[in-house]
Amino acid sequence: MPFSRPLIAFALSLLSLSAAAQGDPWTVFSEEAIAHAAADVGSPEIARFAVGDSISGEIWTHPETDEEWLVFDWEGQTAYLSMTHLHCVHPDNVMEGDLPIGEEIVDRWWGLPLDYEPSDLVDIPARFVARDDRTLQL
User: Fold this and answer.
1) pLDDT tens sequence across 43-60
2) Beta strand pairing call for 33-36 and 45-49
3) What's the CA gap between 113 and 109, in Å, rounded?
4) Is the pLDDT reported for residue 9 higher than 80?
5) In 3-state terms, what secondary structure has residue 65?
6) Which H/E stretch holds residue 49?
7) C-beta of residue 83 within 8 angstroms of C-beta of residue 70
8) Cα–Cα distance list, 15 to 9, 20, 111, 118 (Å)
9) 79 to each of 5, 66, 126, how far by Cα in Å?
């Protein structure tokens, strides 16, 4: 019996997670990145991180909530930081100039550099934009 597309996609996403979790540093992109003593935001605070800080650790999924946490050593203590505050750039997404369209590696665990802005963006015509308080580009 051939494998189904969802099963193949799941397997590929696990490979991405495995690669991302094996030492590539995660970058904090959230203003409120607080590490805790346990995988619970109500547990004692261990450290605060600023936007742009890099952290390496292991990804752990809470068995009751399915929330993903980065677990790492911080000054001799085990620290837990919610993955909702972290971002990891795939090495293939780091290059000078524009990334080739359709070849970016972006999924649940991999992203683009936070400061990446392609040079070929164009404004979306006003008739296609619901709000006029900002310029949207594509």
Assistant:
1) 999 999 999 999 999 999
2) antiparallel
3) 13
4) no
5) coil
6) strand 45-49
7) yes
8) 10, 8, 15, 28
9) 37, 18, 47
Tokens describing residue 7: 């099963």
* pTM (two decimals): 0.67
Query: Whats the size of the chain, residue-wise?
Result: 138
Query: Within 13 A of 55's CA, how many CA atoms are on the CB side?
Result: 31
DSSP 130: S
Give the DSSP letter of residue 125.
P
What amino acid occupies position 40? D
Which residues lie closer than 8 Å to 8 by C-beta, 6 or more apart? none
Question: Are the C-beta atoms of 84 and 30 separated by less than 8 Å?
Answer: yes
